């Protein structure tokens, strides 16, 4: 089922997500719905809080190289990384990458993140895993993990860029009414 995305400045995005304790059918349904929602909205990642569920769960599906225009071919479900209760064990280096967010639709800006991360997490069945990456996946995981702490990528912007964003965003919101 496709769920509604919580959009900035909704206060729920500031909530700190709670650890997942039960790895049951309810969690599996949430993860499946998150995949459907992410694909429907052309996303690469999604945290549970973005669909109004404040638990420490996120998914990432980095598109594969293909000629197909079909999002389900570009981002097959079996390639989805389901990350529950993640903890950064190690991080090093710095890199800058232009990010966007389904909760801040249509806005993209360059953000600084760790270049390489090592993360411990659980899968949908509660099994522990280690993820090590120094590419786009590392950036995407950090972006989604920020959501679990009630942070958005726009909070990483310089003061000047943040003020410009807020002004433009308020104008956009007024235009929708």
UniProtKB/TrEMBL annotation:
SUPFAM superfamilies: Peptide deformylase. Its cofactor is Fe(2+). The keyword Hydrolase applies. One of its GO terms (molecular function) is metal ion binding. Its EC number is 3.5.1.88. Removes the formyl group from the N-terminal Met of newly synthesized proteins. Requires at least a dipeptide for an efficient rate of reaction. N-terminal L-methionine is a prerequisite for activity but the enzyme has broad specificity at other positions. This is Peptide deformylase. The gene is def.
